[in-house]
Amino acid sequence: MVYPGAVHSRFEHSLGVYWLANEAVHKLKTHQGMELGIDHFDIQTVKLAGLLHDIGHGPFSHLFEREFLPQVRNGLDWSHEQMSVDMIDHIVDERCIDIDSGTIKKVKEMILASSKFTLTKSSREKQFLYDIVANGRNGIDVDKFDYIVRDSRACAVGCNFQFERLMETMRVLGDEICYRAKDYLTIHKLFATRADLHRTIYTHAKVKAIELMIVDALVKANDYLHISSHIEHPSQYWKLDDTILKTIETAPDPELKESRDLILRVRRRDLYQFCNEYAVPRVKIEHFKDVTAHDIVCSQKSSGEILNEEDVAVTNVRIDLTRGRHNPLESIHFFKDYESDEKFSIPDYCHQICDTHELLVNKESCCCHHHIKI
């Protein structure tokens, strides 16, 4: 709606990560194949992990996981990574796919490598392979490479990050993927570009307004359509995608009228009005709780239009370098040149980067009703 060139299906992204994962593992094999012992099994598992890493995403990807589910299944410990693993098991069993169990186990380990549901790795050898698709050490992985370049192009914004440079020059030292010291600026651009995308695209005021309206529509339809119950059964979950909006729009059921009306408002661009935002000062972030509609309603003046909680929608946005207040560059190791087998960090530059791109927390509020002016 805001960036028509962008899509939410993850299909193109999954193909891109599959291709990049293949490129990355082949680069390592070309430069260090004999030393690292990379074989056909390793290549296949990395490629499959790249292809299937997001198969567990629900409608509108992170919106389903981070905004919708917490409202209808509060306290549920669920992630799309874990669902990806469950979906793989379901597909293999349902389709009777003849694939080695060791391959499937390693693919699932790679998908969960950067999540809190990470599995105990079946082998302590070749740990660097787990950093290619979902890097739990420092966040540099082909998943990020693809969506940063893809989203920048789809939304017509500039992208100074060149993943080809990192993939061409990376080497494995001590079972860990390391980078040339002269490439630290390229790595900085990776995280800075990601932060800029979050700041200008993913948290754009109109984008957030549409997201809030879609979530409200799904929440209102949940009791009737039992949308959230699909996550309990992979055999049902695979049927759930972005077309859920069209299902609601075309259904004549009176129970879905509120949801239909919200979706119609989105189609007509009658969006929740952006009211205000507040950037939390860095020194207050640690002790600043999320703002709610109740907080805003309780703070309003007694004169003028009186708002109820259902009139206000609030979104709490956090933008960082991927690891909260921790600088990912502190977990990255570098090497001087290709003759060197010593890896090291660059702490001074890390702190400089961290000061330049500090954690940003925005509190944005919208008015849900078009007839109310604030």
Question: Can you walk through the features of this model?
Answer:
By secondary structure, the protein is mostly helical. It has a domain at 11-203: Hypothetical protein af1432 (Orthogonal Bundle). Helix content is 47%, strand content 9%. The chain has 14 helices and six strands. It has helices spanning 11-36, 40-52, 62-72, 80-94, 101-111, 142-154, 163-169, 184-202, 205-225, 234-237, 244-250, 257-267, 293-298, 347-356; strands at residues 171-173, 176-180, 273-279, 312-319, 334-335, 360-367. Strands 1-2-5 form a three-stranded mixed β-sheet. Strand 1 (171-173) and strand 2 (176-180) form a beta hairpin. Pfam families: HD. It comes from Solanum stoloniferum. This is HD domain-containing protein.
Summarize the structure.
With 374 residues, this protein is mainly alpha-helical.
How would you summarize the topology of this molecule?
Layout (H helix, E strand, L loop, with lengths): L10 H26 L3 H13 L9 H11 L7 H15 L6 H11 L30 H13 L8 H7 L1 E3 L2 E5 L3 H19 L2 H21 L8 H4 L6 H7 L6 H11 L5 E7 L13 H6 L13 E8 L14 E2 L11 H10 L3 E8 L7
Parallel strand pairs: 2-5
Antiparallel strand pairs: 1-2, 3-6, 4-6
Helix pairs in contact: 1-2, 1-6, 2-5, 3-9, 6-8, 9-12, 11-12
CATH architecture of the domain at 11-203: Orthogonal Bundle
CATH class of the domain at 11-203: Mainly Alpha
- CATH H-level homologous superfamily name of the domain at 11-203: Hypothetical protein af1432
- Tell me what portion of residues adopts beta-strand conformation: 5-15%
Query: How far do the termini sit from each other?
Result: 25 Å
- Assign the structural class, choosing from mainly alpha, mainly beta, alpha/beta, alpha+beta, or little secondary structure: mainly alpha
Q: Major sheet, described briefly?
A: 3 strands, mixed
Count of helical regions:
14
Q: Kindly provide the radius of gyration, computed on alpha-carbon positions and rounded to a whole number of angstroms.
A: 23 Å
Helix content: 40-55%
- The backbone outline, from C-alpha atoms, is globular
Spans of at least 5 consecutive residues whose pLDDT stays below 50 are 353-359
Domain HD: 10-148
Protein name: HD domain-containing protein
InterPro entries: dGTPase-like, HD/PDEase_dom, HD_domain
Pfam families: HD (PF01966)
